[in-house]
């Protein structure tokens, strides 16, 4: 539960906050309700709330001064704050923008709107807490999550953990020790690179190789960019450990293409395996383009195998695995071709596993089997893919509930559009009859009734907050006629739209 402080000098408003808002069901607890800014600061001297709602016009100390003092205090400036006012003020709106206030709300307040705002704030606060918690996780864990998810939240956690700018330009580097020779430790690498201008995060792979995430702390256009910084890094590393192979990926901005960079490194490392792990520095941009096989040829065969796995088609899996291995064995460099192709395939299997609901932080054994090291490659590949297909199919069989929740969320976001149950069922790969039954179970309403409920809820806001005509509101919300809109509105609210508009107090906190 997040603790809330409300500041308002109108007694009936304070009573409304206490009695009309269902705080706890939305993850909050109303702990304090005071009548001016000075009282609020006195409360915050004793205990810091997580969220503050404050009026503007108050005696002793108004809302703007309260916020100004909060933002100047080290212990209070991060508190989420919502301004609530009975009328619009341009200077207050400017102040809110300048100080990054979460919301600027006008009275009268709609109870449903407050609950929606609380849900939104709680989600944001949960994510922030999660990011702060990730700062204590190892870089390897945060990197693995960003690599597997490629989501905005995972990238934000990674940049936070690294301490770099959100739009920093970065590359990946891996140091592989030569077979039979000890490589550097993570502490040795960190000590060797300390003091260089490029920023870096260091992690150790289970194999003993050292991975680096390197970024430029410089802004675009300044004298020393990322490439110059990395060159200084690899020169120092290769000078200190000349027997190591050092692989440098291409670059990305904001760590948006980690999976692509990782694939680039695997391609470089696979070529290194073919060359018996020769030492040196290998840049992805300088890789030899004269290969005897094409990525698209390998990818098309891997995609056929992935499709068979997702269908859980045993015979198709055997056939596709055989075709893939025969293709690899026929290339000029089968060892490196196999490694690079299987890297692509394993990424696809992991995505399918994650999509089906598997935990990407704990991949199953079939994700990285020792292909080619223990006998027949085709048999190993077929066995791993058959095992993957069975587990992914089992996970997918438990997913209808998840897809149904996604469908409900989709309707909530697109209720203004012309939606039909059969189209929604097709979009989320569910049987229309099953979807209709389960939609009612989850929401408590039939599909059409739920659509009307969302539309009328929005209509109430538009009637209360705007001067739009009833016909215009009906059209914006997807109703083909004003009369039909009026009949639906009255069936749900017991009054006509015009009557609702003239009687604002029914649904408002005044």
Task: Please describe what this structure looks like.
The relative contact order is 0.06. The protein starts with a strand and ends with a strand. The protein has four domains: 2-133, Rossmann fold (3-Layer(aba) Sandwich), CATH 3.40.50.2300; 139-286, Alpha-Beta Plaits, CATH 3.30.70; 295-397; 450-510, Orthogonal Bundle (Arc Repressor Mutant, subunit A), CATH 1.10.10. Helix 2 (37-46) runs parallel beside helix 3 (63-72). The chain has 21 helices and twelve strands. By secondary structure, it is of the alpha/beta class. It has a five-stranded parallel beta sheet. Mean pLDDT is 81; it is low at 272-277. It is flat, with a radius of gyration of 30 Å.
Q: Summarize this, please?
A:
This protein has helices spanning 11-19, 37-46, 63-72, 90-98, 111-134, 139-149, 152-162, 186-193, 226-240, 258-274, 295-311, 314-329, 334-355, 377-397, 400-414, 421-427, 432-443, 447-465, 470-476, 482-493, 497-502, and strands at 2-7, 28-34, 51-55, 80-85, 103-106, 109-110, 169-176, 199-204, 210-215, 245-253, 280-283, 508-509.
